[in-house]
Amino acid sequence: MGDPVFDLTDPATVRDPYPAFERLRAEGRAVWDDALGMWLAFRYDDANAVLRTRALGRIFRPREPEDVWETFNWLHEDALLENEPPKHTRLKALVAKAFARGHIERRRDRIREMCTTLLDSAEERARDTGTFDVIADYAEPLPVLVIADLLGFPESDVALLRPWSQAIVKMYEYDRTPEDDRRAEQACREFAAYVDELADARRREPRDDLVTHLAQVESEGERLTERELAATVVLLLNAGHEASVNGFGNGIVQLLARRDQWARVLADPWGAAPTAVEEMLRYDTPSQLFERTATADVEVAGVTVREGQKIAAMLGSANRDPEVFADADTFDVGRDPNPHIAFGAGIHFCLGAPLARLEMQQSLPVLAERMPRLELADGARPRPTFVLRGWETVPVAVG
Predict the structure, then answer these.
(1) Which residues 6+ apart lie within 8 Å of 385 measured at CB?
(2) Other CB atoms closer than 10 Å to residue 120's CB: what's the count?
(3) What confidence tens digit (pLDDT) does each residue in 229-266 have?
(4) pLDDT range class, residue 2, cuts 50, 70, 90
(5) Among residues 336, 320, 291, 303, which one has the least CA distance to residue 61?
(6) Report field, pTM of the whole predicted structure over 0.90
(7) Is 124 designated active site?
């Protein structure tokens, strides 16, 4: 194995990849990384092309031994994210029809109530200790509560979701341990069994929730199989949850470190939220890369990607490309236009994007109105992962 062009084993690179991104964008084309065994597209136009080129697909290769990875494998084989047309087209039509009932938008007021309740508890904690953790006490629990409400999970089971999600998404990193693998498969088994049981209950006694509608939805005589339904629910939790937690966490760190930008939000919290949220997603992108595999030899990003080779769209680098974004390394809550690709592009545009956006557009102004003198405190600790970029803990003082 040769040397990496982008070293994911270097903690300094993982902590701040942006200088390396700048250097590698200057190559003017995709770069082969021998250590990762794939092409990496760092420029915006190249990454965007990777996401939209039909000869580059999501090809899931089952993990082995298959008897050990059985549930993990079928959860991915039957997921919208891991399929290409025609299966992707069929799954997307069914899922979109279930979502068309307005599940997300009509939760706007409910999300605002959840934000207020979480900040009530955070404020109490701050009275006792002087600080609270804006990740553990706010950014992390909110999307779990929202997704549980959306899907119709009993409130008593909400605590199960975050550990399942954390274990499963660890599989998308490149520095996993055997214990990470074991926990991921166990989480897949437990989560899939839970969704199966809940879906069965909703078939017997339908309710006005997304699991019921996924179980009932029909398009051109087609329905979701039990496995496809479970895979959709798992994907929705992971995609919407991780994007929201890390997008908000990364963004609030930038906002509180730049008091001029925080002041712009405070001046008009609800008016500033739409563009501020997009800038939070662009500036320090929560999902840093998205892999595709060539289904045939294809010219893209200035190189020839051979059939079977992988190429990754480096989303975080693309979103800092000065050829697309003026003053790309400046955090500007009023940036407009802001054509970032934090949620991907093309047919695999993130399923959880509308939900993540809505959560952030509510949670930011609620926080700003409630705690305008919020400041970063000592002890912030970033996640030691690259693909899913975020913070483990961010203590803040209410002021």
Answers:
(1) 14, 170, 173, 175
(2) 10
(3) 999 998 888 877 888 999 999 999 999 999 999 999 99
(4) low
(5) 291
(6) yes
(7) no
Are 248 and 139 a contacting pair, CB within 8 Å? yes
| Owner of token pair 């000065």 | 322
The answer to whether 241 and 167 have CB atoms below 8 angstroms apart is no
Instruction: Determine whether 239 is an active site residue.
Output: yes
Is residue 244 part of the annotated active site? The answer reads yes
Residues 6+ apart with CB under 8 A from 304: 297, 298
- Sheet strand arrangement including 375-376: 131-133, 395-397, 375-376
Are 174 and 387 a contacting pair, CB within 8 Å?
A: yes
pLDDT the model gives residue 101: 63
**359 tagged catalytic:** yes
Cβ 395 vs Cβ 133: under 8 Å:
yes
Residue by residue, DSSP assigns 253-284 as HHHHH-HHHHHHHHHSHHHHHHHHHHHHHHHT
Question: In whole angstroms, what is the distance from residue 224 CA to residue 94 CA?
Answer: 7
- Collapse the DSSP code of 312 into the 3-class scheme (helix H, G, I; strand E, B; otherwise coil) and give the result: strand
Whole-angstrom distance, CA of residue 203 vs CA of residue 79: 21
Active-site residue among 359, 363, 368, 380?
359
Which of 30, 98, 239, 318 is an active site residue?
239
Domain ranges of the chain: 57-284+338-397
- Show Cβ contacts of residue 96 under 8 Å, excluding neighbours closer than 6 positions: none
Measured in whole angstroms, the distance separating CA 19 from the mean position of its chain's CA atoms is 23
Out of 350, 356, 368, 380, the active site residue is 350
Q: What does the radius of gyration of the chain's CA atoms come to, in whole angstroms? A: 21
User: Given a cut of 60, is residue 1 above it in pLDDT?
Assistant: no
Active-site residue, selected from the candidate residues 82, 140, 228, 242: 242
Q: Has 121 been annotated as catalytic?
A: no
Active-site annotation holder among 165, 244, 287, 363: 244
CA distance 85 to 343: 20
pLDDT at 31: 98
Q: Which CATH architecture has domain 57-284+338-397?
A: Orthogonal Bundle (1.10)
